Amino acid sequence: MFNGFEQARQFIQAHSVRMIDLTFSDLWGRWHHVSIPASQFNEQLMRDGVGFDGSSVGLKSVKSGDMVLIPDLATGHMDPFWEAPTLSFICSAYEADTKAPFPVDPRNIAIRAEAYLKETGIADQSIWGPEYEFYVFDKVSYENGVNTASYRVDSREADWHSGEGGHGHFIPLHGGYHAMAPKDQLYNLRAEMCMELEQMGVEVKYHHHEVGGPGQCEIETPLFPLLKAGDATQIVKYVVKMVAHRRNQTATFMPKPLYGEAGSGMHFHQMLMKGGKNLFYDENGYGKMSQEALWYIGGILAHGPALLALTNPSTNSYRRLVPGFEAPISAFFSLGNRSAAIRVPKYADQPETARFEFRPPDATCNVYLALAAQLLAGIDGIQKKLDPTALGFGPIDQNIFGWTEEQRRRIKSLPTSLMEACEALEGDMDFLLAGGAFDRLQLEDYLRHLRAQEAAVRNRPHPYEMALYFEA
């Protein structure tokens, strides 16, 4: 939004801004913020930053937690959810003493990954298009204790309400894709989300009801450069949750909140550019994909098991990655096949649009780490000329769920649990260290966090176990 401090200062005066909100991401992708009066927005702030405790958000140890936030002026936007006129900036974290970019800050990792892309000479920019799927519920409750474990969600659209009487326009399971009103009862909510996003500088491509009958939605943005894609993702998640909250509803990007219903992913469309040219386009290639694109795909799929620890870092992620729900569970690429880990869209067949999407990820990831990791895997594929066909990754343009079990076993599989993904990353992390983007010690700390999370879920009795085993 702003090209420099003076432009931002003038905007603050002209629009009677009273508060400055500084947002930043923790190691796990959650957004945090600290707010200051507009009177404190000065050149010293841009030089010295605002102090915070990095140990509280997983970025530093307790004994040396002091860090500072310095706002990225280009990310400035008015926040519509506060009573006081508030100008918000996305920040990166810096060392408190030297003011050097803090290497473990997720946003700084994404910046270094794209800087490494430029250093290689392969391309000068990566372009990304995350897709945002989420559920909107009218009520959610959950409880976990020594003697109880339960949750319940409710949606006004769900056909489990059909027996109560009323208007009769409910959406059955798996029946929500592009549902029309009056079944689609969330149009006004999604439209409000999109209008707020555009006011905040995030362009919207479209929105619609998704497959999940009880309240699943999708918002899609145009393609953005890597850092803007990461920033936009944080804003999208924030706006979706805040608009729902404002309407006394609740939104979640949780991959699998409903049993037997479609899960929510965050597919990543991606391409590389050099000198304004799309390196992934070849008029005569498979799906209009160039040789560089195929090598990049080879890198993504070869490192796919390790990638999932960064793109699908929750136990709930693997409730979604199961057969039968258009969720990719096998490492292959395809033209238009939505069960493939990598899909080449048939509609993206022009020099300026040719690309592919990596379909396993979901929004429990730290988007900056997920972007950086995918890019580094792709770079590794190009550098090593990893041929996806020679590696057994396809292409496969058939419905593999119609294959025999023996046929499906020939396809390399992706992890089916968080523990498997952690083990894969532990054994395959060197590609992430290229260009100094990630740090090995940081990745080891990250794995300890994921394993503790997995153990916390594994060690608790599951409510369904009561039905299975109580009479033992």
Automatic annotation (TrEMBL):
Coiled coil: none annotated. Residues 15-98 form the GS beta-grasp domain. Keywords: ATP-binding, Ligase, Nucleotide-binding. It holds the Pfam family Gln-synt_N. It comes from the Bacteria. SMART domains: Gln-synt_C. This is Glutamine synthetase. Residues 106-472 form the GS catalytic domain. The keyword Nucleotide-binding applies. It comes from Geothrix oryzae. SUPFAM superfamilies: Glutamine synthetase, N-terminal domain, Glutamine synthetase/guanido kinase. Belongs to the glutamine synthetase family. InterPro entries: Gln_synt_N, Gln_synt_N_sf, Gln_synth/guanido_kin_cat_dom, Gln_synth_cat_dom, Gln_synth_I.
